Amino acid sequence: MNTLSTKEILFFIRESINQIIEIYVILILIKLGLTWFPIIPWYRQPFYALETMIDPYLNLFKGIFPLVLNLDFSPIIGLLLLQAVSLFFKYKFIPFIS
Question: Of 29, 30, 70, 79, which one has the fewest beta carbons inside 10 Å?
Answer without folding.
Answer: 70
